[in-house]
Every structure is written in structure tokens, then in C-alpha cells.
Design brief:
The chain is mainly alpha-helical. The protein folds into two domains: about 60 residues; about 40 residues, no CATH class. The protein is about 55% helix and about 10% strand. The chain contains three helices and two strands; from the N terminus they run αααββ. A two-stranded antiparallel sheet has the order 1-2. Strand 1 and strand 2 form a beta hairpin. The chain is elongated. The two termini are about 70 Å apart. The relative contact order is 0.05.
């Protein structure tokens, strides 16, 4: 019987040792996944910072002026600002009226089409 008890103890020790090895392997895989995710997160943060810097560069007044000058664009004056209800309405086709679109003439003389955004239901 002592041989059977020794064999049972040996099997138990081997089973526990195998379980510990499997658990260690699983933990090592999880650590590698966390390291990969941290690296990806760091890269995404760097990309976000670079894009924010580019956006700030493209919003600089000097940069915008350099792009606008060849096109003949000038900043709007307070006299050009009007409320939407002050804009003259031009007749529009029925299909445009159904889509909530309006053709209007701006004080500068340019004609534009204004469109109403579709109603969006609030998300719960």
C-alpha cells in the first residue's frame, strides 16, 4: 500500500506542477498582450499629438492668409453678417423643398444652398 500512496503522491505532484506550468505560460502570454497594447497605445497617442500639431499649424492666421490671398478671399466684415431669417429666399423646386433645402443669395451676391440637418434622436 505504501507503493500505491507513493505513486498517488507522485501523480499529484506532477499534476500540480503541470497546472503551475500551464498557468505560468498563460500569464506570460497575457503580459506579452499587455506590452503589445501599451506599445500600440503609445503610438496612437503620438499620432494624435502629431495630428493636433498639424491642425494647429493649419489654423494659423498667417497660413490661412497665404492660402486665401491667391483665391481673392478676404475676412468677413461685420456688415456682411446677417441672421438667417434676413436672407432673401428664392423660389426652389418642389423636390428641394421636400428635402428642406433653400437657395439663398448672400449679401456678397453669391448664391448658396442651405440645407437643414436631419433630426437626430437623442441617444439614451
Amino acid at each position: 500500500m505504501s507503493g500505491f500512496g507513493l505513486l498517488a503522491a507522485l501523480v499529484l505532484v506532477l499534476g500540480i506542477g503541470g497546472g503551475v506550468m500551464v498557468f505560468k505560460h498563460h500569464v506570460d502570454e497575457q503580459r506579452q498582450d499587455v506590452a503589445r497594447l501599451e506599445s500600440a497605445l503609445r503610438q496612437e497617442r503620438e499620432t494624435g499629438a502629431r495630428l493636433r500639431a498639424e491642425l494647429a499649424y493649419h489654423h494659423r492666421p498667417a497660413y490661412l492668409q497665404r492660402l486665401a490671398t491667391p483665391l481673392g478671399l478676404v475676412p468677413a466684415t461685420p456688415q456682411q453678417m446677417v441672421r438667417p431669417e434676413e436672407l432673401p429666399k428664392l423660389p426652389v423646386a418642389d423636390e428641394d423643398r421636400k428635402r428642406d433645402r433653400w437657395l439663398v443669395v448672400l449679401p456678397s451676391g453669391a448664391r448658396v444652398v442651405l440645407a437643414r440637418r436631419p433630426d437626430v434622436e437623442p441617444q439614451p
